[in-house]
Amino acid sequence: MKYNNISLGLILMIVLCFNSSCKKELEIKSDKSLSAITTLEDAQAVLDQTSTTAIEPASEECSSDNYYLTTTSFNALAASTNRSIYIWDTYNLFSGITSDWGIAYKKVYYCNAVLDAMKKIPSTNVSEWNNVEGQALFKRGKSFWHVADIWALAFDDATADKDLGIPLRLNSDFNEVSVRASVRESYSQIIKDLKEAAQLLPAVPLHPIRPSKPAAYALLSRVFLSMRRYSEAKVYADSALSIFPALLDYNNVNATPTYPFSNPNVESIYVATAGSSLLTPTNAKIDSNLIALYSTNDLRKTLFFKSLGNNQYSFRGSYSNSNNHFSGLSSSEMYLIRAECFAREGNKTDALNDLNTLLIKRYKSGTFIPVTASDASEALGKILTERRKELAFRFTRWMDIKRLNKEGANIFLKRIVNVQLYELQPNSLRYAMAFPEDIISISGMQQNPR
What we know:
Layout: E1 5-7, H1 8-16, H2 22-26, H3 40-47, H4 50-53, H5 59-62, E2 67-68, H6 71-76, H7 80-86, H8 100-118, H9 126-151, E3 164-167, E4 177-182, H10 183-200, H11 213-226, H12 230-243, E5 268-270, E6 273-274, E7 285-286, H13 288-291, H14 300-304, E8 305-309, E9 312-315, E10 325-326, E11 329-330, H15 331-344, H16 348-359, H17 376-390, H18 397-406, E12 413-417, E13 420-424, H19 437-443
Antiparallel strand pairs: 1-4, 2-7, 3-4, 5-11, 6-10, 8-9, 12-13
């Protein structure tokens, strides 16, 4: 389904050239521009720019119910757009030239520049050529995925052909006219990129900032989960775990450092980070309903959170080993996806086996009692609870709220700021955040309905 014709050249020019250093920023290695990518080494150097290709949008987590701000912290936020995101405002959520929109589409541009260049680079070393091509496809697919999660409604097979999707920019030509895709078209492209990447990437990367075959499988699993296509989500979770099954025993993690987890660690299938002033330990206080889920012997309570007194906690358990949050992919997430999919199939035994395989690594030695359930439905409820606990601040909660509300979970989000109550109703149109107003103004794209 096609919507307003637009020139994404205009959009991306705005997104990319947001300050006087733009040209320098696009001169990746040896002061060469992206147009000078002529070798595999050039292409790999572009993809290894962690300041661009390993940094991801944060708006999903900023909009979730994992945390809250005190009125003092809210009023002290320097950017009005952050305040708007926090209260799920109707408009004025982003400034297109500096926001998550810019982060996402700048990465898309870098990946497209590599993919365009690869058409002219000989595939003399086939495995290396495939690796670079696969990395670019993976990173573009992951960026499109974040854009869809932020700026499109949850995938619904009944409405996906008419629901507004995202701009799919598939080459680096600024002048090519493009269209805003439907949700179905958007997800189809994401899946296409990731499936192609999975065929090309190696089983083991040189470094976890570089994607690999299990990373592509893991992201496909997450994407299919968000679409509520559970059979396919299970297949790809299983594929990821067949290569990357390791779990970190939290009994062996030193709780003394400010940030206890090393980066990477044995669970890190793919490393990426995202950050926002909304989510810093100084500002973000852990939601009381979330912290109440962790029992005394659950090591995640002390490894993930720091007690601030007065029943307040901050988050410290990022796999990025810093204030920035881990937005990558992990084996623990794959166990939870596969467990959920087993339960939805009615397979209680395998569902609980996956869940308990994970949880025995999360409780103090000698205290863990395996989870049991009378049937698959009860097992599913327990798995979803553990998913909430395990993946706190991993950039999956917003996706989960959207998909689970499609199934009748009726998750209401509430914030109280300056004695005023803000609410986000289940399946609200505001789950597709408003596009940046300056992007809409210049491109003529249709804004998300409110």
